[in-house]
Amino acid sequence: MQDLVVLVADKNMQFALRGALGRPQALGTRPLTWDIRPHMGRDGGVRTSGADMLACDAGRFSHALMLLDFQGCGHEERETPLSLEGKLDEQLQRVWGSRAKCIVIAPEVDIWLWGSDRVLHEALQWSTEESIRDWLRHRGFEFDAAGKPLQPKEAIEAVCRRQKRPRSSAIYESITGRVSLQHCTDQAFQRLRAQLLAWFAP
Fold first, then answer.
1. Are 38 and 138 found together in one domain?
2. Do 34 and 68 reside in the same domain of the chain?
3. For the chain, what is the domain count?
4. Which residues make beta-bridge pairs with 7?
């Protein structure tokens, strides 16, 4: 039996999580065996049918995770990320009990890319003297108190266009494969890491 099955909304999320799970020491967990699968229906598909899809794996994996972006899930006007997460947790627990957890990322997984300037610059081959964040500020992008862009996907797209690079999934894995995982300030990532530590302590 493998340790963990993960259902995610898209390939970018798959690669971002792959970069993190491949670093158990940085996460603080023991080494894991895992399988990450993107849902064909993206965020809305994970919301509506993800728990049913994962139910089929309850006998083959010891634990399950389900990840989706709040932005684009189809319920942005009806509830908060945490209330949606709670409802999806209840769906998972009908089959998995305490062995499964949903993580709703607000606004979207692209926020995980905005930790270290150094890692961002290396992954995106940024050679301009002006930092990426300053370059974005001068183009009208706004940032929160933690220095994260309020529109993280649009910000990374703008930087990739500036660098004449596609916004590929490999960028997500490259960044989460090197950025500090213990000091990430994103609340969804903190919940994810706390759950992994609870299940897979060294």
1. no
2. yes
3. 2
4. 37, 66
Query: Average pLDDT for residues 55-84, to the nearest whole number?
Result: 96
Cross-strand bridge partners of residue 199:
none
Per residue in 126-148, pLDDT tens?
A: 988 999 999 999 999 999 998 89
Mapping DSSP onto H, E and C, the string for the chain reads CEEEEEEECCHHHHHHHHHHHCCHHHHCCCCCCEEEEECCCHHHHHHHHHHHHHHCCCCCEEEEEEEEECCCCCCCCCCCHHHHHHHHHHHHHHHHHHHEEEEEECCCHHHHHCCCHHHHHHHCCCCCCCCHHHHHHCCCCCECCCCCECCHHHHHHHHHHHCCCCCCHHHHHHHHCCCCCCCCCCHHHHHHHHHHHHHCCC
* pTM score over 0.90: yes
The answer to whether residues 87 and 157 belong to one domain is: no
The three-state secondary structure class of 78 is coil
Same domain, 105 and 33: yes
- Note whether 104 and 136 are same-domain residues: no
